[in-house]
Amino acid sequence: MKTDPFRSALLSRRWWPVVALLLLLPAGCGSARLDDYRGTRPQLDLVRYFDGPITAWGMFQDRSGKVIRRFTVQIDAHWKGDTGTIDERFVYDDGERRRRVWTVKKGENGEYTGTASDVVGVARGKTVGYALRWAYTLKLQVGDKEYEVDFDDWMYQVDAATMINRSEMKKFGLRLGEVTLFFRKGPRP
Description:
Blueprint lengths: L4 H7 L4 H13 L17 H4 L2 E11 L4 E14 L2 E10 L4 E10 L4 E5 L3 E10 L2 E12 L2 E13 L4 E10 L2 E12 L4
C-alpha cells in the first residue's frame, strides 16, 4: 500500500504547531474597533440610560453556539453626580437567582470604571457613538467551583429605551462562549 507523503507530513507531530497557528489566524482578523462607531446616533450616555428601572432578557451560548442558559434581569439604577449604582437581579431558567451590584464611575471622554463583589479588580469601559466596550474579569460560580473568566462586553444603544449587549467570555485566551442581552428601559412589563 502506497502512503501519501503530504498526509504523512501533516500527521507528523512536528507540523501540529504550524497547523494550529494557521487555524487560529482568521479568528484574530477583522475585529471591531470602538472608533468604528464615532459619529453614530443615538449618543450612548450610561448616566442617562442606566437611570431608573430596566428589564433585560438574555442567554448564554457555548462555543458551538448552543444555548445553555436563559435568564431575565431586573435592574434598578441611579446616580449621584458621576457615581452610579446598578443593581442587577438575575433569575435563570432553572430557578437560580443571583444579584450583582455595580458601582460605576463616569470619567473623562466617555470613559467609565466599575466594581462589583464578583468582579476581579476594576472593569473599564468607553463609549463612542452608540457603542460601549466594557472589559472585566468575573468570578463565575459553576457548581462547587469558582472560575475567573474574562468578559469583552459590547453594548449598542438602539433607541432611548432599547440596548443590545453581546459579551464574549474567555479563559486563558480561549473562547468559552457568548452572552447576549436585550435591555428595555422603563416600567416593568
